[in-house]
Each structure stands twice: as structure tokens, then as C-alpha cells.
Amino acid sequence: MRQHKHPKIEEIDLIDIMYALSDPTRVEIVMTLAGKGRAMTCGELLIDRPKSSMSHHFKILRGAGLVETLIKGTEHINSLRLKELEERFPGVMKAVLKAFRAGMADG
Amino acid sequence: MRQHKHPKIEEIDLIDIMYALSDPTRVEIVMTLAGKGRAMTCGELLIDRPKSSMSHHFKILRGAGLVETLIKGTEHINSLRLKELEERFPGVMKAVLKAFRAGMADG
Questions:
Q1: pLDDT-based confidence at B52, cuts 50/70/90?
Q2: Ranges for the HTH arsR-type domain (chains A, B) (predicted)?
Q3: Which domains does chain A have, with CATH numbers?
């Protein structure tokens, strides 16, 4: 089955991660995946945006190295690459996710 | 003397910080200020970009709450708001600066 391309962990640029996290929809996707703590299909994410917009955001999230999407049949199964990111940029995603979570609790 | 406007620390949005850090010139400014560990005038920064481009980048850095610029006479004195940012988003800037520093050492 044809799969999406993902950057290798050593190719990931922190600037691209910052850009990926500079949009509310993408942050919502990342926070939903982080909150569930497991891989999710696009349908499960229940984020109310047009499909084309979601495709665009997932493309940026994959390109930045934040999300991995595996295609199984008709399903796209998405997960955060947190373990690899922690190795490459220690503490970054942990602190960022925590801060976004705190912000969501405030709002 | 007329001064720049800066957001209050409680108005700062992490999404804007992420966006501010998604550009190589802005990261260079932030890393230079972090490396020196003190306020610096625009002249001292020695970043070789057109003045208009630097103004644009500083505007984004100020708007995001990353940088404070004080005007003294003809000088613009810039500093990172690290202490305030640490209170608002614990650990975020520390991890991000460390990761960017490691990346600069690699490259």
C-alpha cells in the first residue's frame, strides 16, 4: 500500500516544528492526539474543518516531523512522533504540550 | 520618549511565540540575545539583513512577547523576556533555546 513520506528524525528542523505549531487547527490536532495518547484515524479526531483544510494541516504536521500517518486500507492512522522528538529535542515537546494544555484549561 | 508597545505577559499566546520562532532570522536574533545574556542595541546584533527586514522581524518578536525594545535617544535596546516567559510557559524557552543551540553546534 502506498504510504506517506515522513522525514527521518535527524532531518527534522526545529524551525519547521515551530511553524507547524503556529496555527490553531494544527495545535488542536496535536493536542487531541497527545490527549488520547494513541494513534487516531482522521475521523476519530472530530475536528470540524473542511477535508481539504485538514489534508493541508496534516501535510505540514508530517513534513515538520510531528505526525506520522500510516495508511491502512481506507483509513489514515495518525500518531505523534513524541518519542523520537524527545530524543532529538529533549524537553521541547513536553514543555510545549504542557503549556498549550494549561492555556486550554485557562480558556 | 515614545516607546514601543509590548503585550502584557498574561496576553502572550504560545501560538504567536511558535510563529515568531519559525523564521531563521528571528531565531538568529533570539539566539544572539540569549547567547550574550544581556540587552543589546540593534547595531550590536550584527545580523546582516536590510534594516526594513530587521524592523519587521523585531515587530513580530515584540508582538509575540519574546523581545522587549526600549528606546533611549537614538538607540533601540533589545532584550529577551525570558524571566516572564518562564513564569508563563515553564520550561518552554529553556528547552527551545537549548535545542536551537545544539542545532547550531551541529551545523
A1: confident
A2: 6-100
A3: 9-97 (1.10.10.10)
Strands (E), B5-98: 40-41, 67-72, 75-80
**pLDDT at residue B45, as a whole number:** 86
Classify each residue of A35-44 as buried b or exposed e, where b means 16 or more C-beta atoms within 10 Å of its C-beta: eeeeebebee
* B74/chain A closest Cα distance in angstroms: 33
| pTM of this structure | 0.93
B45-54 b/e (C-beta count within 10 Å ≥ 16 → b) = beeeeeeeeb
Instruction: Determine the pLDDT at residue B107.
Output: 55
pLDDT greater at residue A104 or residue B67: B67
Chain B CB contacts of A91 under 8 Å are: 91, 94-95, 98-99
End-to-end CA distance of chain B: 42
Q: If we measure between CA atoms, which residue out of A81, A23, A97 comes closest to residue A53?
A: A23
Say which DSSP state A48 is in: -
Cα of B104 to nearest chain A Cα, Å: 11
ipTM for the predicted complex: 0.93
The torsion region of residue B37 among left (phi > 0), alpha (psi -120 to 50) and beta comes to left
The answer to whether A57 and A25 have CB atoms below 8 angstroms apart is yes
Average pLDDT for A87-100? 97
Cβ neighbours for B50, distance < 8 A, ≥ 6 positions apart: none
